[in-house]
Structure formats: structure tokens, C-alpha cells
Amino acid sequence: MGRISRTEDNMFDLPKGAFLRNGVYVYVNTSNRYISAANRKNGGKGYTGHDSVCIGVLVDKNNMNEKKFFANETYKELYLKSELPEPPVFADSIAVGFNDWLSQFAELSGLIEDLNSVFDVADSRLILDLASYMISRESAVMQHFPAWAREHMIFSEEIRNDTQIGKFLKNDVTVSKINLFRDLWFKRNIGEGKIYLCYDSTNVNCQARGVSIVQMGYAKDDDTLPQVNTDYVVRQQDGLPLTYLHSPGSVTDIAQAQEMIDFINKGKKLTGKELNICMICDRGYISEKNVRMMDNFGISYLLMLRTNFCLYRDLTDETIDQIKTYKNELNCDEGEELYGITRECTLYENGPECYAQIIWSNNKYLSNRREIGRIIEAERRRIEKFIEENKGNFINEKDVPKFPCYFKLKTEQGTPQKEERQKRGRGNSTKTVETPTLRILGYDDIESEINREYQKGGIIILVTKDKLTVQETINEYNKRDCVEKVFEALKSHMGMDKIGVATENAMHGKGFIWFVASIIHASLFIGTKSLRTSDKKRYTVPAMVDQLEAIKADKDLKTGKYKRRYKITKIQNNILKQWKIDENHIDDRIKLLG
Would you list the DSSP string of 153-170? Predict the structure, then answer.
């Protein structure tokens, strides 16, 4: 045993279980071990033995009541092991780049101003944090938010757990607040002059039970699952989401559109400007009531006509033989073939004049050709079955079903059927009515009509309120995929492939966070458009978020302050300078971590 310091700072109380040897040395047992009878040299019963070590000497062996001793190194190893400090709220290394970009964007775009106009400051900050989490983690599962927030710079002053977040979405993000924000954001970003708005909807599966808005609907992917319908309106010029709407899963697209049209009309009035708004929608939203609403509100439209409309059939029959000429040829991508004709029309009785843009597309023709062939074969089987069932019989002419014009029946006239019928008026007199009969011998294909039917499969009809050329109409309609890109981003990169909530209020709250996240996601993409002209791979939104999150700040364990770890890379700088963010801007924000 080495030399023991006999100073006051090395004086300790005797630990529990300590005992003395030679009246001065302090020992403690460190382990117990059983000695069996077989292992005892002198025989006898088994017993429990102990391993013991000396931990020091008594201060005063003549005064046992003092119970103080001077410790040696063994005591310090056993009893004075230094305890690790409690983990800090935030990690020692924090990702700061994406948060810094978002703080700048939220300020410049007015997003934070509109949020603060509706929610208190703490709630606005939490909304931005949750939206950031969805984009960064590509998930909407809030159980993982605290772990993510610990390693990222956030706007909130504290990290909320998933229970707190659930209560926030359920109780604080109310429908009335959501609607107020929708009004403010729409008014701020609608723009001026001629404005094209792309409108579409998607369905989101939800397993929540007892929530009225979650209902069985018309899902394309799996119609056995209950769902919530989500509508988005996106500014065509750049793809910025302007507003959104949730509705029960059982509501049809046509019914949903009525509420959205009404919102756009009210939003148009809120601006106090003379706006020329044109809604671009696919064929699922066209109905007489919806078109009447837009006409009454002074909203233009660019719609695709459904193939089951009488107007579609009439226009197709009228133009199919004259549309494919060099005079009607349109500009298109390589490998495509387009022709177009414009016709004036009305979409409902006594409605205003509008314009039907009849377009023949080679791609559409090729994709529909097989389906048209199946329809023709089904009609062929129907006519052959009818002929077989009435083989050799003369039947009443009125009992012959209507068959497509591309089949011609071969018939033989029979003796007319005579029938006595009561005359109209007084009396009981009758008259004889003769009805022609015929026998069906077979049928012939009318080749020109069958070819014509195939050609009709290439027809697309777009209806415009404004007088545009066919080429202008196609160019504007093709840009409507911007709303599809928003849905793709929400479902693939922000976790909106399903909704994990238990109440309707929480569903509305989570949907609102998704809307804010979609604004942020789209804006990062819009602001870096010029970078993708030369490098599309490095400047996708997920890739840019990864680049920004690689900008980290490390904590100095002595001072508790954070400092940026590495210099800004060329790619990071290319992204940030689009919002006039430099290293000094990032370093100033890092100082807030202290």
C-alpha cells in the first residue's frame, strides 16, 4: 500500500460494511465466494468466504466514535469514480444549414408573417419545425421528432415530445385558423393579370376509426381502404402551392371542386384587384354546375371534356375525317404527332360561348387502340349471339337491338305481322296495324367505319373559356403537371402516403403542416431552377436538403458555445446564394445556439 495522505481533504466517513484489522487498517469486502466441504483441507461444513481490500487507515485509533479515516487510492477507485454529466438538451454537433435557409426564406416570402398573424409566435415556430422535420426526415411519424430535433437547429426554444405534438395538432391548429392562413397566403401569392391555377386532388389512406372525414371512396390504388380526399391549387407559373382542402373520402371530384371554386372566388375578391383567373382541371371536375359557377364568378377555365359527353361524341364525329391534315399539324415533342381544330360550342343550354380544342394525338391513339379493339370484339360477339339465338326466325323489326354503325346486318324481309289495335276516341272500333318483320342472315364489317372508330381513339378535347389557339391551349394544359409534382413530393418525400391520426381535428392539423411543408419544398425547388440547367442530379430537393444539413456547428465543451465545423462547399454556396446567404449569415445564426 502506497503512502496515504493524512490531510483534511483526504478524510472520509467509514463506508457501510467496513471493518478494522490490527486496530487501524480499514477494510471492505469486495466479493463473496462459497467454499464447499469437499474443498476444505481440515474437513467440516462449507462456508461463505470473502475477498477484501484495504481502503485506508483510521484517523484516530483511540477514538472509535469519530469513524473517520484517511483514504488510499483503492478507496478512490471504488467509491470516488467521477460521474458522467447529464446529457444536454441539444447534441454537441448540430445541423444548421437547412434551418438557416428556411429562416431566410420564411422571412422573405412572408410565410412567417402570415403564420404569426394567425398563431402565436411559439406555435408558428413549432409549425416550421414540424414542416422542416417532414422534409428532412421524409416522414410524418412524430414519434421520431424529438430525436431529430436534438441534432438539428430548430426555431422552438424547447423540444416537444410526440404527446405534446399530438395535443398541439389536435387542439391548437384549428380549422378556423387554417382557413384564415389560407386566405392570407392566397391573397399574398395570387399575383396579378392573367393567372393560371392548376387544380387536382389525391386520396390519402387512413386507418383511423370513428373519424367522420375518413370514408370509403374512389381510390385508384386500393379502393378497399378508407381515405381522405386532399385538393391542392398550385400556381402554374412556378408550381407554388396556393391553397388546399380536405374533404371526406366518399365525396366525388365534381362535388369537391364546387367548394374550391367558391374559395377561389372569395380569394379573388379579397385581393381587391382585377384578376383574370383561369382554372386548369382534368375531366374529373367538369359538370354543368361547376361550369355555371365559374361562369357566374367570372373565372375562366381550361378543362378536358369527358368521353361520355354528347358534345364529345358530336365534335369527334364532325372533325375526325378532316383533322389530320398538314394545315392542322401542331408543334410537339420529337416522336409525337399532333393535329388540332377549334370549334365554338356551349357546355350547357343557353350557356355562354366557349371554344372546343379538338386534338388528335398519335400517342393517345396508340395507347387506346387495344382497348377500342376489345370494345369492337365485344360488340361482334353480341351481334353473333343475337343472330344465333334468332337463326332462321322472322322477328319484329322493333325487336332488333341497336348495333354499332361499323357492322351492317344482312337481312331478308318477311311477311308483316298484323295486329288489331283499339282506335282512339269513342266506340269499340279497331284498326289493323302491320309491323315489318325480317330474318337476319348475317353481318358485314364496314371497314371504313371500323378504321374511323380506331382513329377516334386519338381524340382529346379541351374546352377553353378564353379564345386561344389549339397550340396555346396544349401548351397551357401540359403545364398542369406542376400539381402532380406537388403530390408526388408530399407522398414520396414528406410522408403523406398515409395519415397516422386518431381524431378529425388532428387530421386537419397534420394536413396543415403538410401544406406548409409543401410550400417550403416547392420554394426550394423554384429558387434553384437556374442551377438545374447544368446539373439536375445535385440540385433535386432531397439532395439539396442533405447538402444544407451537412453544414454543422460543434459545441466547445469549455465555453458551451457553438462554432461552424467546416467551410461552405461550392454546392452549398450555390444553393444559399440564391437567397443571398453567406458564411457570415450562417455564423450569426449559429450564435443564437449559445
Answer: --SSSS---HHHHHHIII
Please check whether residue 271 is in contact with residue 183, taking contact to mean a CB–CB distance below 8 angstroms.
no
pLDDT greater than 80 at residue 224: no
Question: What sign does the CA torsion over 289, 291, 292, 297 have?
Answer: positive
pLDDT digits (tens, 9 = 90+) for 71-85: 998 898 888 876 666
Residue 134 has pLDDT above 90, yes or no: yes
* Nearest residue to 231 (alpha-carbon basis) of 486, 467, 15, 578: 486
**What's the mean pLDDT in 290-310?**
91
Residue position matching grid coordinates 379541351: 462
Q: What is the DSSP letter of 560?
A: -
* Confidence check: pLDDT of 261 > 60: yes
Q: Does 51 have pLDDT greater than 90?
A: no
Tell me the per-residue pLDDT of 103-126, one tens digit each, with 9 for 90 and over.
999 999 999 999 999 999 999 999
- DSSP of 170-221: IIIS-HHHHHHHHHHHHHHHS-SSEEEEEEEEEEEEE--SS-TT-B----SS
What value does the CA radius of gyration of the chain take, rounded to a whole number of Å? 40
Per-residue model confidence as pLDDT tens digits over 511-528: 999 999 999 999 999 999
pLDDT of residue 221: 56
Give the largest CA-CA distance in the chain: 148
CA 537/CA 544 separation, integer angstroms:
10
| Whole-number pLDDT of residue 248 | 77
Q: Are strands 227-235 and 68-71 parallel, antiparallel or unpaired?
A: unpaired
∠193-199-202 over CA atoms, to 5°? 160
Q: Check residue 43 and give its pLDDT.
A: 66
Q: Which residues pair with 563 in a beta bridge?
A: 554
Cα gap 415→436, rounded to integer Å: 7
Degrees, nearest 5: CA angle 27-30-36? 110
Rounded to 5°, angle at Cα 477 from 474 and 479: 115
Are the C-beta atoms of residues 131 and 517 closer than 8 Å to each other?
A: yes
- Grid cell at residue 435: 309491323
Q: Angle, nearest 10°, between helix axes 541-549 and 481-493?
A: 50
Report the C-alpha gap between 99 and 348 in whole angstroms: 52
440 pairs with which residues across the strands?
A: 411
How many CB atoms are located within 10 Å of the residue 139 CB? Answer: 16
Model pLDDT for residues 450-492, shown as the tens digit of each residue: 999 999 999 999 999 999 999 999 999 988 889 999 999 999 9
| Sequential DSSP letters for 244-281 | EEEEETTS-HHHHHHHHHHHHHHHHHHHTS--EEEEEE
pLDDT at 214: 64
* Statement: residue 428 has pLDDT above 80: no
Starting at the edge strand found earlier in the chain, the sheet holding 47-58 runs 11-13, 68-71, 47-58, 25-35, 19-21
State if pTM tops 0.85.
Answer: no
> Mapping DSSP to helix (H, G, I), strand (E, B) and coil, where does residue 64 land?
helix
Which amino acid is it at 254? I
∠ at Cα 491 (488, 492), nearest 5°?
A: 75
Q: Which are the contacts of 545, defined by CB distance < 8 A and separation ≥ 6?
A: 98, 135, 136, 524
